Amino acid sequence: MSKRPPLHPVWQVPPALLAGDRRVVARAISQIEHGELAPGVVSNALRSHLGRAHVLGITGAPGAGKSTLVHAMLGELLARGRRIAVVAVDPSSPVSGGAVLGDRVRMGEHGAHANVFIRSLATRGHLGGLSSSTEEIVDVLDAAGFDVIIIETVGAGQSEVEIMRVADTRIVACPPGLGDSVQAIKAGILEIADLLVVTKSDLPGADSTVRDLKDMLHLRARPAAGAWTVPVLGTSAEKGADVAALLDRAEDHLVATGRARRLKARPAPKVEPAAGDVKARVLAMAAADPFVRSLGISCLEAGAGTATVAMTVGAQHLNFNGTCHGGAVFTLADTAFGLASNSHGKVAAGIDAHITYQQAARAGDRLQAHAVEVSRSRKLAIYRIDVTRADGLAISSFTGTVYVTGIDVSVPAQETM
Ligand SMILES: Nc1nc2c(ncn2[C@@H]2O[C@H](COP(=O)(O)OP(=O)(O)O)[C@@H](O)[C@H]2O)c(=O)[nH]1
Ligand SMILES: [Mg+2]
């Protein structure tokens, strides 16, 4: 491996960046994208300049119509006199990949406008750190004075959920027709949606997709009084229909939830324990759990709201068909869920969990479950857990909700694993 130059631990805010100088903005983004700066230094330096922009996240399956919708939104926002930045994130595409270039073309007409700044990020197959670098790039654009920042991301499981956390208002795009779009929603995306948009409403089947999504929302717990009710809208970006209505609802959401929700969701550095303390606490929790130990599950990594656990499928995990028992996979995912949700130091009681199985696991497979916090309020938190095999094959995905009690987690003294 070639030796990398050391990361810059400090970064001075260029005054021209705050004045919105495009060249300086682009340079700062490149430095973040290429990993030249230590994580967090840009966001920390910009802390006092953040919170003015409205950050919209748009996610949905490839081909859902996101880029076309973003283009239509650009037209409408320009007409409203806004300055807009677009960040297109495609974790599945290499730098030269078709999707990202295609997006540029699709947004091209407005891309040349002086009040529009478009940047595509690709990840060369590395998902790690994508959401944190996206967050820092959004911070740069916020500090540079863009009124609206749109993040378009194509779904790739957990990374898409993490990226959407960077947004104030999260829009999930579904084209008409069942199948992929509804599958994606089942896999946990619904939890993060503030607005559901049925794209291509000029096509047949759009009305019934709107109805299906409304039914699906209806089946879920009724929102608390005063809480935001997720609307389902149809839009036809190609015909320009209802794009203004979508932007109006996004603004309603901003008013309902307050500006800079994305910043409020960030852990305040002063009150959060040091990362090492959280990890030590979570490792101790895993070590003190007899059931987890009996299945040979170990905790590899942990932080605030996240945990990664692993297990090698052995004879004791098999079912009568000779494949890994679904209950063992559930337990692995549930362990990551429990550790991540208790990592904040207050006892979190699981109240709902849902699992889907994509692939059977076999004896000898090394399985890993990675939990991320999708959202957290004072009393409730939602987690998503992806179970993968060592070679990256998706085995299972799990979503769960906890009720957060006021009781401190106490871990009995115990030898570590
Ligand atoms: N009929 C119709 N087709 C659309 C509409 N929006 C997008 N499309 C088509 O759907 C395809 C995928 O669109 P795109 O915006 O690239 O989707 P993305 O992958 O989600 O960004 C393209 O062929 C678009 O022309 C729409 O409003 N109506
Ligand atoms: Mg696109």
Description of the molecule:
The structure is a single chain. The chain has two domains: 52-264, Rossmann fold, CATH 3.40.50; 275-408, Thiol Ester Dehydrase, Chain A (Roll), CATH 3.10.129.10. Helix content is 35%, strand content 24%. The chain has 15 helices and 13 strands. The protein has helices at residues 15-18, 22-33, 41-46, 66-79, 98-106, 108-111, 130-143, 158-164, 180-186, 206-219, 243-257, 261-264, 275-287, 290-294, 326-342, and strands spanning 54-60, 84-90, 116-122, 148-154, 169-174, 195-198, 232-234, 298-303, 306-312, 346-357, 366-376, 380-389, 394-408. The longest helix is centred in the last third of the chain and has 17 residues, at 326-342. The radius of gyration is 22 Å and the shape is globular. The model is unreliable at 94-101 (pLDDT under 50). The protein binds guanosine-5'-diphosphate and magnesium ion. The site of magnesium ion (MG) has 5 residues, from helix 4 and helix 5.
Short description:
The protein is an alpha/beta fold and 417 residues long.
Helices and strands in order:
Blueprint: H1 15-18, H2 22-33, H3 41-46, E1 54-60, H4 66-79, E2 84-90, H5 98-106, H6 108-111, E3 116-122, H7 130-143, E4 148-154, H8 158-164, E5 169-174, H9 180-186, E6 195-198, H10 206-219, E7 232-234, H11 243-257, H12 261-264, H13 275-287, H14 290-294, E8 298-303, E9 306-312, H15 326-342, E10 346-357, E11 366-376, E12 380-389, E13 394-408
Parallel strand pairs: 1-4, 1-5, 2-3, 2-4, 5-6, 6-7
Antiparallel strand pairs: 8-9, 9-11, 10-13, 11-12, 12-13
Helix pairs in contact: 2-7, 7-8
The chain binds guanosine-5'-diphosphate (GDP) and magnesium ion (MG).
Residues 60, 62-68, 106, 199-200, 202-203, 236-238 line the site of guanosine-5'-diphosphate (GDP).
